Amino acid sequence: MQQWLADPPFFGGPGQGTRQIVELFVAFGLTALIGLEREVQGKSAGLRTQTIVGTASALILLVSKYGFLDVVTSDLVVVDPSRVAAQIVSGIGFLGAGIIIFRRGSVHGLTTAAAVWESAAIGMAAGAGLLLLACTVTAMHFIIILGFMPVARRLASRLGGAVRLHITYEDGRGVLRQILEASSRRNWQLTELAADPAGEPLGAPDGHVGVQVTLVGSGILRAPMVLADIDGVSGVRQLDDDPD
């Protein structure tokens, strides 16, 4: 048994050294950071999904680089590692397509699908030994997620933009008409209006209903405060661009 465990083809062959273990752990750590960020934000495809995708991509690329050395013969068998890498990209594309959905007139899940694709790319870079590139893209991820949103909100408040809101209000009092009039007075254009299904939102007081609206215009970031002050409105919640 000890002789079998120590047999180089099983545990000591090419592609199973310290360098490859380090590359796997780099892929594991970097994609876990991305997954942790999504977990904290309450998004889907969080810690476990991102880490599994990134680590598995690194392993597949390592298999592509080293897994066929025992059958490679000079001038007879040639292995192209890029073929397996291309299949990773195709596979992640199918996974991302399953995440993206169309609901209530808008697309959901684009950022989630992009994050999964990004984790696969980071894992592939780590598996290929491009550790600096893998670390750089991970840093860029946090710049995109944590840095771009405040900038976008500042631009929206000054130049104009769009905001998606879920509004809960008392039914039968003409509150929706007041919401539309308040928006019209401030030149906010309504581009989406969808009523909640019967029984939603959960936990709303009796006689209250909910709608999802998208408003476009300048100074749009003040919309939640403005609409919340309307008599009969019981709650205004801003929705993320990508709630999934």
TrEMBL record:
GO terms for cellular component: plasma membrane. It is found in: Cell membrane. Keywords: Cell membrane, Membrane, Transmembrane, Transmembrane helix. Pfam families: MgtC (PF02308). The keyword Cell membrane applies. The keyword Cell membrane applies. The chain crosses the membrane at residues 20-36, 45-64, 84-102. Residues 24-152 form the MgtC/SapB/SrpB/YhiD N-terminal domain. It is a multi-pass membrane protein. Belongs to the MgtC/SapB family. PANTHER family: MAGNESIUM TRANSPORTER YHID-RELATED, PROTEIN MGTC. This is Putative magnesium transport MgtC family protein.
